Amino acid sequence: MVKRSDCMKKRGMFASMVLVALVTCLMGACIDPTAPPQPSASETPEAGITWYSYEEGMEIAQAQKKPVMIDIYTNWCKYCKELDRVVYTDSNVINLADKFVCIKFNADERRDLAAKYNSPTPTNPRPGVPSIVFLKSDGTETHRTGYKGGAEPFVQDMMVALNNA
């Protein structure tokens, strides 16, 4: 004869396994194991956006008095890869990006910068990746956004940033 407590234990174990499977599936939808292309300042404008390291980009922005666009990403972020594939390849985004000094850094590798630009604030209470932060050439933040599903909303954010620069 099977005891009631044995049935309850089996049900609890089954429920735990289902919960673990569900969490695993949900996490798989948000984590992409493929690494994004690494930023390179050697790209020509015709080929896409020219990305700089933080230090080099900020130096250029100050010298040229040009606004800054910083893309904060991680290798595991699915939407960071979508930005690279969908948004940063759009001709309107590429053309507007020429008006900025574009900087890109990995938040997992540059925790110092992630703490500076991607920490909770009153206007950004739940930071995450991707985060795109727009600055004046002196480093003053003017606007920030994330992935909104396509190039057109991103173009609008770029225009807001340019108007605030």
Structure description:
With 165 residues, this protein is of the alpha/beta class. It has helices spanning 4-30, 54-64, 78-87, 91-97, 111-117, 151-164; strands at 51-52, 68-73, 101-106, 131-135, 141-145. α4 (91-97) runs parallel beside α6. The model is unreliable at 17-30 and 36-45 (pLDDT under 50).
Offer a few descriptive terms.
165 residues, 6 helices, alpha/beta, 15% strand
Specify the structural class.
Answer: alpha/beta
CATH fold assignment of the largest domain: Glutaredoxin
- H/E element order: HEHEHHEHEEH
Fourth CATH level, the homologous superfamily of the largest domain: Glutaredoxin
CATH architectural name of the largest domain: 3-Layer(aba) Sandwich
Q: What's the mean pLDDT score? A: 81
Strand content: 5-15%
Number of strands: 5
CATH class assignment of the largest domain: Alpha Beta
Main pleated-sheet profile: 5 strands, mixed
| Terminus-to-terminus distance | 77 Å
Number of domains: 2
Q: What is the helical fraction, as a range of percent? A: 40-55%
Blueprint (SSEs and pairs):
Layout: H1 4-30, E1 51-52, H2 54-64, E2 68-73, H3 78-87, H4 91-97, E3 101-106, H5 111-117, E4 131-135, E5 141-145, H6 151-164
Parallel strand pairs: 1-3, 2-3
Antiparallel strand pairs: 2-4, 4-5
Helix pairs in contact: 4-6
